[in-house]
Design goal:
Layout: H1 3-33, H2 61-65, E1 67-70, E2 73-76, H3 90-106, E3 113-117, H4 123-131, E4 137-142, H5 145-157, E5 164-168, H6 174-179, E6 187-193, H7 200-204, H8 209-214, H9 217-220, H10 228-243, E7 246-256, H11 262-269, E8 278-286, E9 292-300, H12 323-350, H13 368-381
Parallel strand pairs: 3-4, 3-6, 4-5, 6-7
Antiparallel strand pairs: 1-2, 7-9, 8-9
């Protein structure tokens, strides 16, 4: 290494050292502000790992203090139970609140209902409810009971226990969970979701080591390509909309995406097909850094009427039978027509009223099926 390279390397090390010292001071100031550590008498258990000594895997301050600010509100967070809310996700709350105010103005007689899929700490759902009229209601579902406990605590702390509830449900169990709800409890105006979307490649290469060391893997990683949760979510929502309703007329789905994942996620939810039913992209929301961070979607054609929940026997058009029921009905009609034709054939052969000599094919009172049978019988006789 020549002299110039040595100076360059030394300068880089000095800048890095100053950076970690500055971060250490900021972390200590945050701990002192929260009443944790900072003094000579503070216990070692209350202190965060020294960022200057262990910078890569230092316990995030939010897990030490148990608090994280999100959308100007303070949320309780717990290590290895729920993710630390990120500022980049605040765009979801902004878009959800904008959509909610539109729906509240269009349908003032009905409270806006929000469903948070994979709620974690509840930050998305609770922040959205705080930004909407006080009549709005919300449900958060998550596969982790520990995370739901954290979300319920945040709901109580923010005074939203009467407007929000939390229940156990996985993406794959969403339809079963919906069937357990009654009436309008199955219908929502807004769906929000921040699914796990970090790929295993990013986990091993580019992921922040502190996040990998302390945040729950279930909330971070989305399979080899980071798209597993999106695929499962799309299947679940499509099935639920077709069978249970899920979304009210004019409802929205706000979905968080990775900074460079827009096209890949769009191919899952808004494929270039001619299908009549499916998601339509309304808007792409950008985070504070200017990255594409969320998709605002709507289901086309419009989901069920707002005044009634759709049962499995009804589809999006109202009282019209579902595709499966329609197939059974058509099969029944076919069998019925066949039986009627056979009966009419016997009548035409044996009774005077429909004998071959007395049937008037121009008489409007004669059923068309009987006319067909009679014509065939006359042709066979000749």
């Amino acid at each position: 290494m020549n002299r110039a390279e040595q100076l360059k390397f030394s300068s880089a090390r000095e800048r890095e050292h100053k950076h970690w010292l500055l971060r250490q001071e900021k972390d200590r100031a945050e701990l002192i502000r929260c009443g944790v550590g900072g003094g000579t008498g503070a216990s070692s258990e209350a202190r965060a790992p020294d960022p200057a000594t262990h910078p890569a895997t230092a316990l995030p301050v939010a897990y030490v203090t148990g608090q994280q600010r999100f959308c100007s509100h303070s949320f309780f967070v717990e290590r290895a139970v729920c993710m630390i809310p990120r500022q980049a996700s605040e765009i979801i709350v902004l878009k959800a609140s904008q959509c909610g105010h539109k729906l509240a103005a269009a349908f003032p007689e009905q409270p806006v209902r929000v469903l948070d899929l994979g709620t974690g700490s509840g930050c998305l759902l609770l922040s959205t409810l705080l930004a909407l009229p006080t009549s709005s209601l919300g449900v958060g579902v998550d596969i982790s009971t520990a995370a739901l406990r954290v979300a319920a605590k945040n709901s109580d702390n923010l005074g939203l226990s009467s407007r929000a509830r939390f229940e156990v449900a996985d993406f794959g169990e969403l339809q079963t969970w919906l069937f357990q709800q009654s009436g309008d409890e199955r219908l929502f105006d807004i769906l929000v979701c921040n699914p796990p979307y970090i790929s295993m490649k990013a986990k091993n290469r580019g992921l922040d080591e502190a996040a990998r060391a302390h945040e729950p893997a279930l909330a971070l990683f989305g399979g080899d390509d980071g798209l597993s949760a999106y695929k499962a979510l799309n299947r679940a929502l499509t099935t639920c909309i077709a069978t249970c309703g899920l979304l009210r007329e004019g409802g929205y789905f706000i979905l968080e995406i990775g900074a460079k994942a827009k096209q890949a996620v769009l191919q899952i939810f808004v494929p270039l097909t001619t299908a009549k039913d499916g998601w339509e992209l309304i808007e792409v929301g950008k985070d504070w850094k200017g990255h594409d961070r969320c998709l605002v979607l709507q289901w086309k054609p419009s989901p069920p009427r707002r005044d009634s929940a759709v049962t499995p026997a009804e589809n999006k058009a109202g009282k019209q039978a579902s595709p499966t029921q329609a197939a059974h009905q058509n099969l029944g009609k076919s069998k019925k027509r066949k039986a009627e034709t056979e009966a009419l054939a016997g009548t035409a052969a044996n009774l005077k009223v429909f004998s071959l000599s007395s049937v008037d094919l121009g008489d409007p009172r004669v059923p068309s099926s009987a006319k067909i049978v009679t014509k065939k019988a006359k042709k066979a006789k000749t």
